[in-house]
C-alpha cells in the first residue's frame, strides 16, 4: 500500500506542477501582454483550477495539453448537473479557449480540444437603472451633511452618475487627473486606455468645495487620490458599494443598488435625451459599439411607452 501511495502522490505533484506552471505562464501573459484586470485574472485562475482538479480526479490526466474534447465536454456536463447557467458556461469556455490558444504557441499541444466546443446563445439581461426623477432627488444637497464625509459622499455619487465611470476608475482618480480650468477629467480605464470626460460646472464647483474641506484634514497633492475614507485612506470597492447601496435605498425600491446601476443610469438617461450612441460609447470607455447597444433596448421601451400614451391610434 505505501508503494502505491507514493506513486499516487508523485502523479498528483507532477500534475500540480505542470498545470500550475502552465497556468502561471498563461496568467503572466494575460497580465503583461493583455493587461487584464485583477478581477478577470482571478476568474481565469479559478476556472483553470477547477478544470485541473476535474482532469486529475476523473481521468487521471496530469497534463492539460493531453486533454481532448470529450474530457472538456465531460467537465461542462458535470457543471451543468450542478446547475451551471449558460452565462457561466460561456465564461468558462472562453477561459479554456484562450488557455489552449496560448498553449498552441508555447507548448507541444497535439490538438486544441476547444475547436469543437461551441458557446451557448445566452440572452443578455437588460441593464438596471434608476429613473431620472429619482436620481435628481438623490443628488439634492439636503441628502448629505456638511462634513468632510458628507461632501465626499455627494462627490462620489455625482461622479458616478454625471460621468458614468466604473467603480475601479472612481477609486483611482487623482488630483492631477482633474482639470477644473478646462472642465474635464482624465480616466485610466480597462487595459490602461485613457479617455477624457467633460465635467459639468456644478461638478467642478462641488469638487472645489470638497478640496477645500479635504485640505483641512488630509493631503491634496496632485499625486494623491481624490476620494478618501474618513480616516484618510484611499477608497476601496466595498466602501463605495456600501455607500451607493445606502443612498440608492433612499430613492428606489430596486433590489440591485450598485455603482454599475449608476453607470447604467448615466448611459440610459443620455440615450433617452437623444445623445449619439457613439458619443456614449466613448464616454463609457467601451471597446466596441456592441457593448453600448444594450442601452438601446431600454430606450426603445421608453419610446414605446411614450407612443402608447400619446398616439391617437395606440
What would you say this structure looks like, in words?
The protein has 314 residues and is mostly helical. Helix content is 59%, strand content 4%. It starts with a helix and ends with a helix. Mean pLDDT is 83; it is low at 1-18.
Provide key terms for this protein.
314 residues; three-stranded antiparallel sheet; 2 domains; single chain; hpI Integrase, Chain A; DNA polymerase, domain 1; globular; disordered N terminus; 4% strand; mainly alpha
Summarize the structure.
With 314 residues, the chain is mainly α.
Shape: globular
* Number of E strands: 3
What is the rounded Rg? 25 Å
CATH architecture label name of the largest domain: Orthogonal Bundle
Can you summarize the main beta sheet? 3 strands, antiparallel
> Element order, helices and strands?
HHHHHHHEEEHHHHHH
Q: Can you tell me the CATH superfamily of the largest domain?
A: Intergrase catalytic core
In DSSP terms (H or I, runs of 4 or more residues), the helix count works out at: 13
Structural class label? mainly alpha
Tell me the strand order in the biggest sheet.
Answer: 1-2-3
Q: Report how far apart the termini are.
A: 80 Å
Write the layout of secondary structure elements.
Layout: H1 2-34, H2 38-59, H3 69-81, H4 86-106, H5 132-138, H6 148-163, H7 167-170, E1 178-179, E2 184-188, E3 194-198, H8 201-215, H9 237-248, H10 259-272, H11 277-284, H12 289-292, H13 294-310
Antiparallel strand pairs: 1-2, 2-3
Helix pairs in contact: 1-2, 6-8, 6-10, 10-13
Amino acid at each position: 500500500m505505501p508503494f502505491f501511495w507514493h506513486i499516487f502522490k508523485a502523479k498528483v505533484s507532477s500534475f500540480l506542477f505542470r498545470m500550475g506552471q502552465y497556468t502561471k505562464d498563461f496568467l503572466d501573459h494575460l497580465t503583461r501582454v493583455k493587461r487584464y484586470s485583477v478581477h478577470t485574472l482571478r476568474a481565469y485562475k479559478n476556472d483553470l483550477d477547477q478544470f485541473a482538479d476535474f482532469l486529475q480526479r476523473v481521468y487521471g490526466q496530469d497534463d492539460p495539453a493531453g486533454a481532448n474534447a470529450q474530457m472538456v465536454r465531460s467537465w461542462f456536463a458535470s457543471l451543468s448537473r450542478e446547475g451551471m447557467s449558460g452565462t457561466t458556461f460561456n465564461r468558462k469556455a472562453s477561459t479554456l479557449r484562450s488557455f489552449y490558444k496560448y498553449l498552441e504557441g508555447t507548448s507541444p499541444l497535439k490538438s486544441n480540444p476547444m475547436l469543437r466546443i461551441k458557446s451557448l446563445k445566452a440572452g443578455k439581461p437588460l441593464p438596471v437603472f434608476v429613473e431620472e426623477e429619482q436620481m435628481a432627488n438623490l443628488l439634492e444637497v439636503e441628502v448629505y451633511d456638511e462634513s468632510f464625509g458628507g461632501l465626499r459622499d455627494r462627490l462620489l455619487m455625482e461622479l458616478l452618475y454625471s460621468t458614468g465611470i466604473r467603480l475601479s476608475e472612481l477609486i483611482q482618480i487623482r488630483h492631477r487627473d482633474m482639470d477644473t480650468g478646462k472642465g474635464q477629467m482624465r480616466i485610466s480605464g480597462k487595459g490602461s486606455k485613457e479617455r477624457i470626460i467633460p465635467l459639468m460646472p456644478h461638478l467642478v464647483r462641488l469638487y472645489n468645495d470638497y478640496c477645500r474641506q479635504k485640505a483641512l484634514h488630509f493631503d491634496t497633492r496632485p499625486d494623491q487620490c481624490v476620494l478618501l475614507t474618513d480616516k484618510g485612506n484611499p477608497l476601496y470597492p466595498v466602501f463605495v458599494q456600501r455607500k451607493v447601496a445606502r443612498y440608492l435605498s433612499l430613492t428606489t425600491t430596486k433590489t440591485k443598488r450598485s455603482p454599475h446601476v449608476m453607470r447604467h443610469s448615466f448611459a440610459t438617461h443620455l440615450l433617452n435625451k437623444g445623445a449619439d450612441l457613439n458619443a456614449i460609447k466613448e464616454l463609457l470607455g467601451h471597446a466596441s459599439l456592441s457593448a453600448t447597444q444594450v442601452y438601446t433596448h431600454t430606450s426603445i421601451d421608453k419610446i414605446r411607452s411614450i407612443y402608447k400614451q400619446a398616439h391617437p391610434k395606440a
